[in-house]
UniProtKB/TrEMBL annotation:
The lineage of its organism: Bacteria, Bacillati, Bacillota, Clostridia, Eubacteriales. This is Tripartite-type tricarboxylate transporter, receptor component TctC. Residues 1-25 form the signal peptide. Keywords: Receptor, Signal. InterPro entries: BUG, Bug_dom1. It comes from the Bacteria. Belongs to the UPF0065 (bug) family.
Length: 339
């Protein structure tokens, strides 16, 4: 009894001392209760940015353009970590399941693959509900490209070949379940034609395969290949947007050929669910600030990336809307794909 009584008193005493120290610390630092010192001076160490795709693709491009400005606003460095595979699912599983919710690990989140991964594969267990969406930065329209010495000089040449050789044309995409994958599915449905889809581990390997004639074409994004098209290394046949791009005015839209298809990829940044409110606010404020920076906007324009800033709750709603939209698309074609 005596030993138990002393142990109990010691525990109570220890808790009391701990509570007093906590209250004193809160008063001394003028911090609200529940906010740690690490949170209040965030970020006080480098921030890791997970990328679910290989270097050279759309995620990497966004990181390179955004990183310097974001570092300046946050006052610390950003370190890119490449984890390609499963169309981003490996990186996003790590973010949601294995990462502390302290704001020191973010990930570039790409639609629609962020949600189509688990919509298409029940073995992938993360969902967007396990994220804290911070900011969408750009939306990059889809584009069809071939090598500079391809026999396809025009989009009509491409169409004619596919009609004459159903299911034979090889076309690269950035990975099963990605925006390019879905763009091809939507294109096949809209045209009634079929092609042979070849998945890669990101936009970079996809367009590089087309440039090297390892495949006959690549479905990718304008911002990813704009410099390659301008340099003459790739030939753009069609763009999947409402109207022609001012940057490539000679490239027709698919809609001009009667194909009702507008598609692309949005890219932004998210954190694990449950990061401290003040950390979330610091990140959102930083993105809001750089989105007004003329130098940053000029960089995006030079890379053919249209800014499409959505932050916080607006970005979260956008992701949920995308989840609903692409679930409907997948449900309409999945039986055909599995056959």
């Amino acid at each position: 009894m005596f030993k138990k009584s002393i142990w109990k008193k010691a525990v109570i005493s220890g808790l009391a001392v701990s509570l007093m120290l906590t209250m004193t610390a809160c008063r001394t630092t003028n911090q609200p209760a529940g906010t740690s010192k690490v949170e209040s001076d965030y970020p006080n160490k480098p921030i890791t940015v997970l990328q679910g795709f290989a270097a050279g693709g759309g995620s990497d491009q966004l990181a390179m353009l955004t990183g310097p400005y974001l570092q300046k606003e946050l006052g610390n460095t950003l370190v890119n970590q490449y984890i390609p595979g499963a169309t981003g699912a490996i990186a996003w599983t790590q973010l949601t399941k294995q990462t502390a919710a302290d704001g020191y690990t973010l990930s570039i989140t790409n639609t629609p693959m962020l949600m189509t991964n688990y919509l298409m594969n029940t073995e992938i267990k993360y969902t967007i509900d396990e994220l804290t969406p911070i900011a969408n930065v750009v939306t990059d329209p889809g584009i069809l490209v071939v090598s500079k010495d391809s026999p396809f000089k025009t989009y009509q040449d491409y169409i004619d070949y596919v009609k004459a050789n159903p299911g034979q044309l090889t076309i690269a995409n950035s990975g099963t379940g990605g925006d390019d994958f879905f763009t091809i599915l939507q294109w096949q449905k809209a045209t009634g034609l079929s092609v042979k889809m070849i998945p890669f581990t990101g936009d970079g390997p996809s367009w590089q395969a087309a440039a090297g004639n390892k495949v006959q074409a690549s479905s990718t994004n304008l911002g990813v290949v704009y410099s390659q098209v301008k340099a003459g290394n790739l030939r753009a046949l069609a763009i999947y947007s409402e109207k022609r791009s001012d940057l490539l005015p000679d490239v027709p839209t698919a809609k001009e050929f009667g194909v009702e298809l507008v598609a692309g990829s949005s890219r932004g940044y998210s954190a694990p669910k449950g990061i401290p409110d003040n950390v979330k606010k610091k990140l959102i404020d930083s993105f809001t600030t750089i989105a007004k920076d003329p130098a940053f906007l000029k960089g995006l324009q030079g890379a053919a990336l249209p800014i499409d800033l959505k932050v916080g709750d607006e970005y979260a709603k956008y992701l949920k809307d995308q989840e609903t939209e692409f679930k409907a698309i997948w449900d309409s074609v999945k039986d055909t794909i599995k056959k």
